[in-house]
Amino acid sequence: MASLQSISSWDRQYDLVIAGFGLAAMCAAIEAHDLDPRLSILILEKADEATSGGNSRVAGQSLLISKNAEVLAEYQRKMSVANPIPEDLLVPWSEAMAALEPWIQERAAQAGAEFIHGTGFSERDAVLEFPEFGAREAVHCTATILPIPSGVYLAFRENVRQRPRIEIAYETPLRDLVQDPDTLEVFGVIAEHGGQRVAIRANKGVVMAVGGYEASPDMQRNYYGLSDVAPLGSPHNTGDGIRILQKAGADLWHMRNQGQSGGIWPGYRPDGWVNGFLRNFFWQSFSWIEVDANSERFYNETAELQLTHYKEKKHGRWVDTPHYRAAPVHMIFDATTCQYNKLVVEMMSWNPVVGGYRWSDDNTAEVEKGWIQKADSIEELAEKIGREPAKLRATVERYNAACRDRRDADFQRNPDTLYPIADGPFYAMRIDPVIVCTGGGARRNIRSEVLDHAGKPIPRLYEAGELGSMFSDLYQNGSYLTEAMISGRAAGREIAALSAWQDRP
Ligand SMILES: Cc1cc2nc3c(=O)[nH]c(=O)nc-3n(C[C@H](O)[C@H](O)[C@H](O)COP(=O)(O)OP(=O)(O)OC[C@H]3O[C@@H](n4cnc5c(N)ncnc54)[C@H](O)[C@@H]3O)c2cc1C
Question: Which residues of the chain have pLDDT under 50?
């Protein structure tokens, strides 16, 4: 932290300073502005304008809509049994959720965008992750704002644009907080622009909404317990908030959940890239398997794991699928699967949505790039990916025999998805674990106040969105974006009601 004494003069001053320009930050700014349009509001964003927007911009844009607060609270309670969410956060959160839809509809209407029920990219009216915990009763539906991709993000960005007293400073990362070393009260921030340190006074308060640590390999290893997982979201989310909150005296939580909420998904990260692609989960044909480091199958590949954020039930509990433990993993497939299935998803994630990468429909461009290996026989394919030919051949033959029997004794794959790997040439793509979110950050309350190690709010310091997310363990689709709205709005509302701090003698 920087002390007030270290600031000889402020370079700029605002009533409210918000760090990060994702959905949580936008909601904080919109709410504060609408409560008091005279407030001066600054949003500090680390990225340039073209690559701003965080995970919010590249998310699947699914919003959880619930109409029954009590039932929703009970559902989340059951999902978080391994690390219970405090009741004085859980209960008011569920009440805010049950009341949220009209406000989202207003934001869509204000942006001239269409709010719809459904995901927008599948036939489902709702993604019900854990029915045995009460998903059907708790989830009224899934909703989104068009267009695809990025519809929710675009509508909220338009809402911000329509409020001219909200300023945005791109390429200006938050670096530190200015605080009283005894009371921890926050007076302003230190940001950086063009290599220069900028001291910005925040008359009323500061909101930290800088997202997670997905793009920090070091934090991945130390907090997540994984190495070599690739982010699907913003490469700018490198855990800056966690470092700053540690210095600020905040109590950290949810750095790693028992089942990491957003899940560890199968994907592909080209060598040297920061971000991974998300492997497709809408299949036209099923002549494919995945093999682990021993060239053996290791799970039920065609279970609809996208519906549970890649959690499968083991020993009576929902846990992450074992991709990160099974590495190196390869997907082995034949010509039919290659021809009729684009291997990655393009309606979400960074590489297609912001990076603009267009994966070829029949994967031929990626074969040419060497991202996918091709061979005339399984043995030749095995050589190309550094595996023992006889072992890979045996695994494929065992799987093909299961297809003939229409019975997968090893992993109980749905018989309707048992198609043999028979139609050469044959292909292999390395499967890298990719992650959606990291929820860790500072412990906070329903007012979005950051709590210190004694459980007391740090005066004038607020946090919203994925940084310090309340969710622990399991996660219901659409909860992160709506949490960004609820926690962002709470922070904006609370700060708008504060009086400005006065200069110390
Ligand atoms: C592929 C994918 C799919 C998803 N699908 C869904 C979904 O369908 N539904 C759902 O509810 N959730 C989904 N999520 C999760 C959801 O997107 C995030 O939890 C949510 O967007 C977080 O919003 P946020 O505002 O907290 O952070 P972000 O949107 O990540 O914004 C953080 C911002 O902070 C900026 N920043 C970082 N460091 C600094 C700094 N030092 N100073 C200033 N700025 C900084 C970043 O550049 C970024 O713009 C998905 C996520 C991913 C990656």
Answer: none
